[in-house]
Design a protein that fits this description.
The chain is built from 12 helices and 14 strands. The protein is of the alpha/beta class.
């Protein structure tokens, strides 16, 4: 197969492949433009779709090396859980569902390239979004010499209509059919969330219609009775629901189910992309919303005040690193080490009440690490556990600088 002489030669490339329109076109385009062998990689990270059909599509396209892997446990254990130990949330609202999945996919692309002797990897992220950055920063961190091919930054197929025309011209079978309407929402899903962008969401004043939401009931349509659950924490991670031990992926899947039924986890956000533009997206993160609320409740009981406040101060920077694609950076590793150290005492049980889109903490306990001392905190007689007269000197010392400044203003 002849390659395009204007492009540097590539012998073999590993493609992040879903079997959908974009990556099916990319598969053919890579062969035509680079004259190279293509290895496909399809990851099951809990997107809720069958991944095996991608094998048949890749085989039909003549692919000889096909990787399809179930990464759900690794995704939650090694990426989602560490992120939630930090209570990470970007710009006050986004729980980083897409951001945290990209490093895992890119890591496997680089590993498969090493296994198969490929000299390049390729992805279907556009030149406008954050994902291109996340994929490639990960790739270069793990293999500084890897070559990355980003078709959306090279080709002129910059619309769905052009992609469909290319597919038709080259005999690429696409299940989705054109109906003459505008493109549907651009969606991304994994075990942590599902996101929606594009179409009518490009007008930030337009309210998304009910049919768009896939994972959660509308809060007004959720059950009229609240649901109570108990979550068990060990070193900052949820290990059991209502006393039943579960794997990390099992925990998140079950919380997604319960949260979705009770209308929990919807968000409509205008966010600042790393590449410089503002973007509107809608998200459903039912399990993650529950996890964040419960984790903060567990920390409130077990973390020292100054450790908790320092964690909160570091969190926006940590969240920004993940959003921007720096999961494998030295600074993220450094912050993670500090965060993980803080979690050694985050052990116990949190009881939550879920009702029509709301998550309410109604109880928390830790038999081993609680810092709550009822004898000191009580409003009743404390038998000398706390001498209230001590507060006089504490207040005077803390007021000293304020009093000095106040006298100067007279």
């Amino acid at each position: 197969m002849a390659s395009n002489p204007a492009k540097p030669p590539v012998n073999k490339v590993v493609l992040a492949y879903s079997g959908g329109l974009d990556t099916s076109v990319i598969l053919k385009w890579l062969k035509n433009e680079y004259g190279c062998e293509v290895v496909t990689f399809t990851a099951d990270i809990g997107q809720g779709e069958e991944v095996e059909p991608a094998r048949a599509k890749a085989e039909a396209a003549g692919v000889q090396e096909i990787y399809i892997e179930d990464l759900r446990e690794e995704f939650v254990r090694d990426f989602v859980y560490p992120m939630f130990r930090a209570n990470a949330i970007y710009e006050g609202e986004y729980l980083l569902g897409t951001s945290i999945a990209r490093p895992l996919i890119a890591k496997r692309l680089v590993e498969i390239a090493a296994e198969t002797g490929a000299d390049a990897i390729s992805h279907g992220a556009t030149g406008k979004g954050n994902d291109q950055v996340r994929f490639e920063l990960t790739a270069y961190a793990l293999n500084p010499d890897i070559r990355v091919i980003a078709p959306w930054r090279e080709w002129d197929l910059l619309s769905r209509e052009k992609l469909m025309a290319y597919a038709a011209e080259h005999g690429i079978a696409i299940e989705q059919k054109r109906d003459g309407s505008k493109s549907p929402y651009s969606m991304d899903a994994n075990l942590l969330h599902i996101s929606y962008e594009g179409y009518d969401l490009e007008d930030p004043w337009v309210e998304p219609g009910k049919p768009m939401w896939r994972w959660t009931a509308a809060p007004e349509d959720a059950p009229d009775r609240p649901v109570e659950i108990e979550l068990t924490f060990s070193r900052g991670d949820i290990t059991a629901i209502d006393g039943k031990d579960m794997s990390p992926a099992g925990v998140l899947a079950e919380l997604n189910r319960i949260g979705g039924e009770n209308g929990i986890g919807r968000a409509d956000i205008v966010e600042n992309r790393y590449v410089g533009m503002k973007s509107r997206g809608c998200y459903e993160t039912p399990g993650g919303t529950i996890m964040l609320k419960a984790h903060r409740a567990m920390e409130s009981l077990t973390l020292d005040r100054e450790a908790a406040h320092l964690k909160d101060a570091l969190m926006p920077r940590y969240a920004e690193l993940i959003y921007n694609g720096y999961w494998f950076s030295p600074e993220r590793h450094m912050l993670q080490a500090a965060i993980d150290q803080s979690q050694t005492v985050v052990n116990g049980v949190v009881r939550l009440k879920l009702y029509k889109g709301n998550v309410q903490v109604v109880g928390r306990k830790s038999d081993t690490d609680s810092l709550f001392d009822e004898a000191i905190a009580t409003f009743e007689e404390d038998a000398g556990a706390y001498d209230q007269a001590d507060a006089t000197g504490f207040i005077r010392l803390n007021a000293l600088r304020l009093r000095v400044a106040g006298r100067r203003k007279r």
